[in-house]
Amino acid sequence: MIEPDTRPPLAKKRFGQNFLHDQNIIARIIHAISPKPGQALIEIGPGRGALTRPLLAAGEKLQVIELDRDLIPFLQAYCGNHPGLVVHQCDALKVDFPSLAPGQPLRVVGNLPYNISTPLLFHLLQFADHIRDMHFMLQKEVVDRMVAKPGGGDYGRLTVSLAARAECVSLFRVSPGAFHPAPKVYSAIVRLRPRPAPFPIPDFGAYDRIVTAAFGQRRKTLSNALKGLLDSEQIRAANIDPGLRAERLSAAEFGALSCQLVADTGPAQKPEPGAQ
């Protein structure tokens, strides 16, 4: 009788796979998430199951989304064919997340491929009303941008776009040696808690248009960067100096600019896509 091949699948570059193996880091992540039985736990990109098995042990039920079909048999075997494990072989960017656990607040976890991390964040935030929290492993530079303060080099479109939609907290960084194969960059664990904007935003389409235009040409002043949207007089009407550059403004001040835009021109027809 031929025994099944139980060797761990090799990482595939086209999927951006780097498999976590450091047990101390795994324990810290699980502690940060603090999964409990009865919660609607969803893991994106389980890979070889480094987080999947302890999440199952703590939460008893877990749904995972894995694009690489070759990983799934190994993952199921590694988790002992646990009856509480449900595997969805699909692209997370196309998933209607609320449909996975109707009526329950979702807790989403994942070691996200760096090449889709930002689009995936904004895809998930479309379902913010259905999500309790998210814990992700991301490239450290991305996390630094997510939690940056005005005036710093990391502060930009991603920071401001997320600030209107979620509370972001950087928890701890992870060295390349925690993965196999080791990436060339450091990673970090970030927690996102979706919440209503903490400042007035009459229309997210207008807000995203303002943010995109302001950071599209970082060296330009607001009066130049926002041409076609707001002129200097309108910027001053929002109590903001049109001679400032985008990186000097808080997210709340971008909210004030979006209020001005809506007051003068009406709501945007379509929201801008997720920030890069």
Tell me about this structure.
This protein has 276 residues and is α/β, with parallel strands linked by helices. It has two domains: 13-194, 3-Layer(aba) Sandwich (Rossmann fold), CATH 3.40.50.150; 204-265, rRNA adenine dimethylase, C-terminal domain (Helicase, Ruva Protein, domain 3, Orthogonal Bundle). It is 32% helix and 18% strand. The chain has ten helices and nine strands. It has a seven-stranded mixed β-sheet with strand order 4-3-2-5-6-9-7, with helices on both faces. β5, α4 and β6 form a beta-alpha-beta unit. α7 (204-216) packs across α10 (251-265). The protein is elongated and about 65 Å long.
Straight-line distance between termini? 52 Å
Number of helices: 10
Domain count: the total is: 2
- Please state the overall shape, judged from the principal axes of the Cα atoms: elongated
Note the main sheet. Answer: 7 strands, mixed
CATH superfamily of the largest domain: Vaccinia Virus protein VP39
Helix content: 25-40%
Q: Architecture of the largest domain, CATH level 2?
A: 3-Layer(aba) Sandwich
Order of helices and strands: EHEHEHEEHEHHEEEHHHH
Outline the low-pLDDT stretches.
Answer: 1-5
Percentage beta strand:
15-25%
The averaged pLDDT comes out at 90
Structural class per helix/strand content?
alpha/beta
Adjacency order of strands in the biggest sheet? 4-3-2-5-6-9-7
CATH class of the largest domain: Alpha Beta
The gyration radius over C-alpha positions equals 21 Å
Keywords: Cytoplasm, Methyltransferase, RNA-binding, rRNA processing, S-adenosyl-L-methionine, Transferase
Protein name: Ribosomal RNA small subunit methyltransferase A
Family: Belongs to the class I-like SAM-binding methyltransferase superfamily. rRNA adenine N(6)-methyltransferase family. RsmA subfamily.
Subcellular location: Cytoplasm
